[in-house]
Design goal:
Layout: H1 10-13, E1 18-22, E2 25-34, E3 37-46, E4 60-65, H2 68-84, H3 86-93
Antiparallel strand pairs: 1-2, 2-3, 3-4
Length: 95
């Protein structure tokens, strides 16, 4: 699970994509420019492959405000998806 007290990635994401994994679940946070400003895009996919080698239909995407609060919402989302889809991540670890 992501510890929100230690999940301060906004300054990093301003310049680079941030990737991580959690027991079979991989994720990426990145800055995405839209017409009305920047948003924080969260992409989740199962192991074992990297983002580029994973088919698009296996990726889950969601956007959040590009703020510190948005990062905290993203952490909550990542933790929730991990819990809700735990069998998927358990199976991915065995591949």
């Amino acid at each position: 699970m992501i510890d929100k007290e230690k999940f301060h990635v906004l300054n990093y994401v301003k310049k680079e994509e941030y990737t991580g994994s959690m027991d079979g679940m991989r994720y990426m946070l990145k800055k995405k420019e839209k017409e009305d400003g920047s948003v924080l895009e969260v992409i989740i996919w199962p192991e074992p492959y990297c983002y580029a080698k994973t088919s698009e239909e296996k990726k889950q995407r969601r956007e959040f405000p590009f703020t510190s609060d948005g990062v905290m919402e993203a952490a909550d989302h990542l933790n929730a998806v991990y819990q809700e889809q735990k069998p998927v991540w358990e199976q991915a670890k065995r591949m």
